[in-house]
Amino acid sequence: MTAAADALVVTDLRVEFDGFVAVGGVSFDAHPGEVRFLIGPNGAGKTTCIDAITGLSKGTGSVTLGDQELLGRPVNKIVRLGVGRTFQTASVFEQLTVLQNLDIAAGLHRSALSLLRARRGVDPSIETALEETGLSAERATPAGILSHGQKQWLEIAMMLVQGPRALLLDEPVAGMSQDERTATGELLQRIAERRIVLVVEHDMDFMRRYASRVTVLHQGKVLSEGAVAQVQADPKVQEVYLGTAGAATTTGMLAVAESTPAMTDAATQGNGA
Ligand SMILES: Nc1ncnc2c1ncn2[C@@H]1O[C@H](COP(=O)(O)OP(=O)(O)OP(=O)(O)O)[C@@H](O)[C@H]1O
Ligand SMILES: [Mg+2]
To answer: Of the candidates 163, 197, 212, which is a domain's last residue?
Structure first.
């Protein structure tokens, strides 16, 4: 494994939809050993960045993983190069058990022969993913009756069995309970020890607790970047999240610094919209 030398480097990424610039020249990088966050108001271009990195949307500029250029490559090739992602809504096979879901995910990388061999027992990569995500006891449970949090963890486990070098997660804690959020944050920190982890998230509290480094997008451009405290203290970020013009469109996204109770009030009021 070359994990230590790995980096996901996005340079001047642009994505247009029929002339509308959704991502207008975004650059950032992510490395193993940090939980990298991408935040920003609705429509900022976060999901589009992930779509472009994973080959779902066409982009220009450059996205490299290690020494490999990803832009212009088909989705399946990018998966095989080691990029895994989750979507804003969980996509597991509800009728199948946890183990069956994982077997299908692992099959993406396996030859017919090794799939045959795998029938004799649980693949070690699946066993590891079950342990890592805390789903060992649920292996025979149909995915449809898992809790919301467990479904998200299953999606993460489905990425892990593919041995990814980079995991991109789009709003992984949306709809989760507080305990599930904490478990997810700790899981992402463990995963990030040896892999690239990029998290798109609306939940500011979650971001504050688990982010190593944050990039804030706004209208398809990088507005601010740095450690959590740095980004929160950036007047440009405060304006986007709390400014009169932006407040109505940034519901639930308000950056709330512990030291500024007035901001907490504004955030609470904004949540109802
Ligand atoms: N397939 C598409 N065709 C046209 N416009 C699109 C398409 N996908 C996204 N957009 C537009 O691009 C902009 C960025 O969208 P994107 O989904 O990346 O935002 P986001 O930051 O993920 O927002 P959210 O927080 O709401 O998920 C939005 O204005 C959106 O309407
Ligand atoms: Mg999105």
So the answer is: 163
Residue 89 has pLDDT above 90, yes or no: no
Closest-approaching ligand to the CA atom of 56: 1
Residues whose CB is less than 8 angstroms from the CB of residue 271 and which lie 6 or more positions away in sequence, other chains included: 251, 252
In a domain, 229, yes or no: yes
Question: Which residues are registered as beta bridge partners of 11?
Answer: 62
Give the residue from 208, 165, 221 showing the smallest Cα distance to 40.
221
Task: Please indicate, yes or no, whether residues 265 and 178 belong to a single structural domain of this protein.
Answer: yes
Phi, psi of 144 (to 5 degrees): -60, -25
Residue 260 belongs to domain spanning: 3-82+165-270
What span, in angstroms and rounded, lies between the C-alpha atoms of 62 and 81?
16
Give tens-digit pLDDT for 1-24: 444 468 999 999 999 999 999 999
Phi, psi dihedral angles at 168 (to 5 degrees)? -110, 125
48 lines ligand 1 (CB under 6 A): yes
pLDDT tens digits for range 202-249? 888 899 999 999 999 999 999 999 999 999 999 999 888 766 344 433
Residue 30 lies in a domain: yes
DSSP, residue by residue, 100-155: HHHHHHHHTT--HHHHHHHTTS--HHHHHHHHHTT-GGGTTSBGGGS-HHHHHHHH
Q: What is the pLDDT of residues 178-190, one digit of tens each?
A: 999 999 999 999 9
Backbone angles phi, psi at 49, to 5 degrees: -60, -50
3-class DSSP state of 28: strand
Closest approach atom of ligand 1 to CA 88: 27
Which residue has its alpha carbon closest to ligand 1 atom 29?
43
Structure-block tokens of residue 165: 């070098």
